[in-house]
Each structure stands twice: as C-alpha cells, then as structure tokens.
Design a protein that fits this description.
single chain; about 280 residues; rod-shaped; mainly alpha; 3 helices
Length: about 280
C-alpha cells in the first residue's frame, strides 16, 4: 500500500480542476518553506559549533600559556634558592674531606714524633745508666752537657709541635669566623632571592590574569558580534520571507481572479449556447 501511495501522482498546477490546482500551489509553498527552514537551522548550527570551538580554543590556549609561564618562573626561582644551599653543602663536603686529610696527617705526624721521642728518651735513659761508671769529673760534665742538649732538643721539638698546633687552632678559629660570615651571606642571599621570586611571581600572576581576562573579554565580544550577525541574518531572512509570502498571496489573488474570469466566460458561453438551443 505504501508503494502505491508513493507512486500515486499528487495534485498538479496544470490540472483542469480548480481544487487540485489550489492544493498543488499550497503543497509547493509548504515544501519551499520547509526547505528554507532546514537550511537556516543547518547553517546556524554549523556557525555555532565553529564559533564555540574557536572561542574555547582561544581561552584554553591562553590559560595553558599562562600556566606554563608561572610554572617555569616557580621552577627557576626555586632553583635559584636551592642553588645556594647546594653550594653550601658542596663547600661543607669539601671541608670535611680536607679536615679528614689534615687529621690523618696530624695523627701520622704525632705518631712519628712519639716514636722519635721514645727513642731519644731511651737514649737519654741509657746514658744515665753509664754515668755511674764515670769517675772523671770532666767526662761527667761532658755527658751532662750532651744530656742537656738532647733534653733541650726534645723539648724544642715538643714546643715546635705545640706551636704548630696553636697556629692550626688559630687558623681553624679564623676559618670558623669566615664560615659563619659566609653562612650569614648565604642566608641573606637566600632571603633576597626568595623576595625577588615572590615579587616576580606576583607580577607574573597579575600579568597572566590580565591576559586571561582580556582573552575572555575578547571571546565575549566575538560571541556577541556573531550572535548579532546571526540575529540580523535571521531578521533579513524573515523580511525576505514576508516579501515572498506577500508576492505569493498577490499571485494567488491574481490566479483566483483569472479563474473567476474564466468561469464567468465559461458560464457566459454556456448561457449563450443554451439560448441558441432554445
């Protein structure tokens, strides 16, 4: 049944029947209006989708760029601050290595000095044992002189070591003061860099927020412009449609007048034929 309905011819404007011609014109007007409406909806939908994609892409792009800049500033600022601590740790490690080396040399030096002192002490002790066998005062005086020189030499070596340790201790005190001064300078540098980082981040946040706000404002203006253009287009379409409908109404009036005139002529002819037959 549906196939027969599809194949059945509809009313035609060329039909001899007045009612079919009217239906054909009405059907043609309805089809034209439907096609125009579908085309307008399709164009509007495509325009809205393209505009939305464009606007969202611009705003998200600006947000991503701002986030990347802020993240880079934070990373660079953190690296500047931590570099001071890293350098201080490197200096401390080098100091510990040097301190270990110095302590090792000091222990070796002390061990060698103790060994040498023990040998001299044993030598001095042995000479004291031989002093009992000396009977000549001159020989005993010479031995005492030698013993005194050995003892003075050993004492001089001890004093020399003590003096070297005192100088080393003074150098350590001076180095400690320098290290404290350097630590204070490092702390001041860290504070300075932290303050600079805070200022840079504040400035960057203000600038990026301004750029993001401008991007959204630009999107809003573009959206308003697009909507305004679409509205004007729809109003123009409606105006054109009204003009077209007005023309079609005038055409229908003309068609109806022509049909009426045709019927009048036909009726007059039929009337004349009837009169002739009578």
């Amino acid at each position: 049944m549906s196939t027969n309905a599809e194949e059945a011819p509809g009313p035609s404007v060329d039909s001899k029947k007045r009612e079919e011609r009217i239906l054909a014109r009405q059907d043609r007007i309805l089809k034209r209006n439907k096609n125009t409406k579908n085309e307008g909806n399709t164009v509007s939908q495509v325009k809205d989708e393209s505009t939305a994609d464009k606007d969202s892409g611009k705003s998200f792009k600006q947000i991503n760029m701002s986030s990347q800049r802020i993240e880079k500033l934070r990373y660079d600022g953190t690296e500047l601050v931590t570099n001071v601590g890293v350098a201080a740790m490197a200096r401390e490690d080098a100091r510990k290595v040097e301190e270990e080396k110095t302590n090792k040399e000091r222990r070796e030096k002390l061990e060698a000095e103790v060994k040498a002192s023990m040998e001299r002490f044993e030598e001095i002790t042995k000479r004291w044992d031989t002093a009992h066998s000396l009977k000549v005062p001159q020989a005993l005086d010479d031995m005492m002189t030698n013993q005194r020189e050995l003892i003075n030499s050993m004492i001089a070596e001890k004093e020399k070591i003590i003096q070297a340790f005192q100088l080393e201790l003074k150098a350590k005190d001076d180095q400690y003061v320098k290290d404290l001064k350097k630590q204070a300078e490092d702390i001041d540098l860290i504070i300075e860099r932290m303050n600079a980082q805070v200022k840079n981040l504040q400035k960057a946040y203000r600038e990026e927020l301004t750029k993001i706000d401008q991007a959204f404002e630009s999107e809003r203006l573009e959206l308003l412009e697009n909507q305004r253009g679409e509205w004007e287009g729809l109003m123009s379409q409606r105006s054109n449609k009204e003009v077209e409908n007005l023309k079609e109404s005038e055409q229908r009036v003309d068609d109806f007048a022509a049909q009426l005139q045709h019927l009048r002529v036909q009726d007059a002819e039929e009337c004349n034929m009837v009169k002739i037959k009578l």
